[in-house]
Design a protein that fits this description.
The complex is a heterodimer of chains A (about 500) and B (about 350).
Chain A: E1 9-18, E2 21-31, E3 36-40, H1 47-54, E4 62-67, E5 70-71, H2 77-83, E6 85-88, H3 100-105, H4 119-132, H5 148-161, E7 166-170, H6 178-193, E8 197-201, H7 205-211, E9 214-219, E10 222-228, H8 234-242, E11 267-275, E12 283-288, E13 292-296, H9 303-310, E14 318-323, H10 333-338, E15 341-344, H11 348-351, H12 359-363, E16 372-373, E17 376-377, H13 379-392, H14 409-421, E18 427-431, H15 439-454, E19 458-462, H16 466-472, E20 475-480, E21 483-489, H17 495-503
Parallel strand pairs in A: 3-8, 3-9, 6-7, 7-8, 13-19, 13-20, 15-18, 18-19
Antiparallel strand pairs in A: 1-2, 1-4, 4-5, 9-10, 11-12, 11-14, 16-17, 20-21
Helix pairs in contact in A: 5-6, 8-17, 14-15
Chain B: H1 30-54, H2 61-86, H3 94-109, H4 112-116, H5 118-145, H6 151-169, E1 175-176, H7 180-187, E2 189-190, E3 193-194, H8 195-213, H9 215-225, H10 227-232, H11 237-263, E4 265-266, H12 275-285, H13 297-316, H14 321-342
Antiparallel strand pairs in B: 1-4, 2-3
The chains are: A alpha/beta (about 500), B mainly alpha (about 350).
Chain lengths: ~500, ~350
């Protein structure tokens, strides 16, 4: 926003609650004309709620919105579009089987004198807009034949053809490769040059520094910073996002993991230069028996991808992965399990529980081949084992035959943890093991993990809670944009050091 | 009214007791939840009662024989269909596979080889059609699990072409034959009851055991219940799916052979015609969830009995086929409605 210009968009004092839960309180957002404005924040910070208020999906409870100098009242995305606000969603909302032209002009097709669609004019207009973005494709071809990046550009072209003054891009690069990202960036540059503003939502800080003019940081439903990009550094943005003051840290005894005390045993596995795709391009990582190695980094830094690669769920495209005692790294999850690797996934519902199955069946799913003789499940042995885990992990259930979906989140998580402990793992990969469970269950789960580490299990721990990492891990490998950029060891890791390492520009 | 069945529309139990819910889910009348749980048995009892009252000569042994010999094929295919549905899939090709297997058998024991070596010919007339049926199942399974074609489309291929191939093999003609050894499959009696009825029970028992007692059954239900979780727990998802479609096709092949054996004739145009609908209806009436994760084998048996009884009731009371089709549709609607109510 140049000095003296009235801003294109000004949202002030925005508040919004859902059934008593406050999502936004005192959020603000100011976007100047022709400005590329970044919007960042952790999950749950309120970014998407704010955008949905702007685009008419939600009605605000409090605050004012003005757009192009007038108060803005929109009650639906279509009204927002008519007012000049277009949104490019993560999940594209185009029609893949229809032509590029139809997608750009849908609902606003040029007409002939006889009120039929003037295809000649429609194609010409579409071609002109796309050429403006530096892309040269057959506008008569079905949209679905083109790459995701091109489809995204077509969505942007549609926004332009609708005379949008503000284009909102929500995580636009999440499914693009590097070259496509550059194409998108140049399109953003053209929008800016044409005087159109862009609100750019992203987890990837590098992108903000590459294309944004200003950036707004949100935390816990409020706006905590609105700065020109030239005035801020990576650490400043991150400490604003996390709400961590460099001094407040260094507290002790907050978790049950108790890192830094382990006598590391022999090497369990080692990855050198491992890559699986654009989100994991270079991973150096080693885990020894009886230690917890944490993966630190922001959302999207490649932590989960690293876990999947080690587990054999994604095939490596480069680099080396070796497990002690194995000739070749696992190529499938089944091979990984046979080699003694367990993977507690981040998304319990989508990748963890089988909801129709009982606690017992969920618990023994990975172990099943070892519980089976000639295809037949040894039921006595199964029941004994499940009973043992229910007691030792303190799983609260009406009985081992209760469907797992009826358990609380913390108890479901314990069952899934038991699924992996049951295979007697040499290596446990834990992706956000305590997310979404209550505090009591969290401490219990952490204690269970520590107990098994002391018995010699190697653990690879992914956690968004820095506390859990700093105090729980013996070593932390720091990830940035798909690359492992450093390693630090306990004792001696502080949240300050970790935040700095995550924020440090490599 | 102290039933605490949380009847939310979403069907995803949050697992947090006492979570605030919309007030309309305060509870249902007890008779409704009882009906939802035992709907299949209630329907069966009602059907039997109606028949005893209305249908002439219903309580005759002959009626029992006719119904058993006809329900066996539905039950056998419905068991296979239940397994496929448990993976979250569907198999439209069962009727066509029946026609194909049924067309092959007489060609084999009626061939020069089959006449020269009757015993070998008979064995081949059972095994070759079943192997061909399993190949059809493997085709379905590969299309679905490897090429990721939607099950309804993938099995539509054989639904259309399978019967076509069967008709080409038989030149589109009705092929009659006389082969007592083969016809035993459809006309034999064991302890006074039709052989194929016993066969259906045996198959149900074996499949029930496999589903509930073996790793294969556990894997099947895991794949249907949450495919991604199953894969990450080391379940060989592709092998499970391909195997399931092969089993379903194998069972369809058996049913096709039974129909041919009953008639002592193979009619590729009619053998197994509309069987996919009967089998799906029986599976759903028996309690299979179309989104997968459950394989109620005994339910499939009950469902098959209900479908057969409805057909018989209408036929025995002189109601036209067209009406019978509508009645079948109504049963499926009722079963699905009950299933919605049963969902937690």
């Amino acid at each position: 926003m140049g000095a003296g210009d009235a801003p294109l968009l000004s949202m002030q004092g925005i508040g919004k609650s859902f059934a008593g839960a406050v999502a936004l309180d005192g959020a603000s957002l100011v976007v100047g004309a022709g400005e590329v404005h970044g919007l960042i924040g952790q999950n749950g910070a309120g970014k998407s709620t704010l955008i949905k208020i702007l685009t008419g999906v939600y009605l605000r409870d409090a605050g004012t919105v003005s757009f192009r100098g007038r108060p803005l009242q929109v009650a639906s995305p279509r009204e927002a579009q008519a007012a000049g606000i277009s949104t490019i969603y993560q999940e594209l909302t185009l029609v893949p089987l229809r032509s590029v032209t139809e997608n750009v002009t849908l609902g606003y097709e040029p007409r002939t004198r006889f009120n039929t669609i003037d295809w000649r004019a429609a194609h010409a207009r579409t071609r002109a807009i796309l050429t403006g973005f530096g892309i040269d494709i057959d506008v008569r071809s079905p949209l679905g034949e083109h790459s995701t990046a091109i489809q995204q550009l077509v969505a942007i072209a549609r926004a332009v053809s609708l005379q949008a003054r503000l284009v909102i891009m929500d995580e636009p690069t999440s499914s693009l490769d590097e070259r496509e990202v550059q194409v998108l960036f140049s399109a953003v540059g053209r929008l800016r040059a044409a005087g159109t503003s862009v609100l750019y939502v992203s987890h990837f800080l590098n992108e903000l520094f590459a294309i944004c003019d200003r950036v707004t940081v949100m935390r816990d439903g409020a706006t905590v910073a609105d700065r020109a990009i030239g005035e801020v550094s990576r650490p400043i943005l991150i400490s604003a996002m996390l709400g961590r003051d460099i001094a407040e840290i260094e507290s002790a005894g907050m978790t049950e993991l108790g890192g830094g005390s382990a006598d590391a045993g022999e090497l369990v596995f080692e990855a050198a230069g491992l890559a699986t795709g654009p989100r994991l391009s270079h991973l150096d990582l080693a885990v020894r028996a009886g230690e917890i190695v944490g993966l630190g980094g922001l959302l999207g830094s490649g932590r989960t991808e690293a876990a999947r690669a080690v587990f054999g769920a994604d095939p490596p495209s480069a680099g080396r992965l070796s497990f002690t005692g194995q000739d070749a790294p696992p190529a499938t999850p089944a091979e990984a399990i046979a080699a003694g690797i367990g993977f507690l996934t981040e998304d319990r519902k989508a990748e963890g529980i089988v909801p129709h199955m009982s606690v017992r069946e969920n618990l023994t799913l990975a172990l099943l081949p070892a519980l089976t003789r000639a295809g037949r499940i040894r039921r006595e042995q199964e029941r004994e084992l499940v009973e043992r885990f229910i007691v030792s992990l303190g799983i609260k259930t009406a009985g081992m035959d209760q469907p797992i979906r009826e358990l609380s989140g913390g108890n479901q998580q314990k069952v899934l943890l038991a699924r992996w402990l049951a295979i007697h793992p040499k290596l446990l990969i834990l992706d956000e093991p305590t997310r979404g469970v209550d505090v009591g269950a969290k401490f219990e789960i952490q204690a269970i993990i520590r107990e098994h580490v002391e018995r010699g299990v190697g653990v690879l721990l992914i956690s968004s809670e820095f506390e859990e990492l700093v105090e729980g891990a013996d070593h932390i490998v720091v990830m940035q944009d798909g690359v492992s950029v450093g390693r630090m060891s306990n004792p001696g890791i502080t949240e300050e050091r970790l935040v700095n390492a995550i924020a440090h520009v490599a | 009214m102290n039933t605490t069945t949380p009847s939310t529309a979403s069907g995803t139990a949050s697992g947090t007791p006492g979570a605030p819910r919309a007030p309309r889910s305060s509870g249902r009348p007890a008779w409704r939840s009882a009906l939802a749980r035992h709907g299949t048995l209630v329907a069966l009892a009602a059907l039997l009662l109606v028949n005893v009252l209305v249908t002439p000569n219903f309580l005759q042994l002959q009626t029992l024989f006719v119904n058993i010999s006809q329900v066996a094929t539905i039950a056998i295919v419905a068991i296979g269909m239940t397994l496929v549905i448990a993976t979250g899939g569907i198999d439209l090709s069962v009727g066509a596979v029946m026609a194909l297997a049924g067309a092959l058998a007489p060609l084999i024991f009626g061939s020069a080889f089959g006449i020269a070596y009757p015993m070998l010919g008979l064995v081949a007339a059972f095994t070759v059609p079943l192997l061909v049926a399993m190949a059809c199942g493997a085709f379905n399974g590969v299309m679905i699990s490897v090429l990721r074609v939607q099950p309804i489309i993938a099995t539509l291929i054989l639904f259309i072409s399978g019967r076509g191939i069967a008709q080409v093999l038989t030149n589109g003609n009705l092929q009659t034959f006389s082969n007592p050894g083969f016809s035993y499959l459809g006309t034999g009696r064991v302890f006074g009851l039709p052989f194929q009825g016993w066969l259906a029970l045996l198959i149900a028992a074996v499949v029930f055991w496999v589903v509930n007692r073996t790793i294969h059954g556990r894997h099947l239900l895991a794949v249907g219940g949450n495919e991604r979780a199953a894969a990450l727990s080391g379940v060989p998802v592709r092998r499970v799916k391909i195997g399931t479609y092969m089993v379903c096709a194998f069972l369809s092949g058996i049913a096709g052979l039974i129909v041919v054996a009953i008639n002592s004739a193979s009619d590729a145009a009619r053998n197994g015609s509309l069987m996919e609908l009967d089998a799906i209806a029986a599976a759903v009436v028996g309690g299979a969830l179309l989104q997968g994760g459950r394989a109620p084998i005994l339910g499939a048996l009950l469902g098959a009995v209900i479908i057969q009884l409805v057909k018989y009731t209408l036929l025995a009371n002189g109601i036209e086929d067209e009406v019978a089709l509508v009645a079948k549709a109504l049963i499926i609607v009722a079963a699905v409605a009950l299933q919605q109510g049963r969902r937690e």
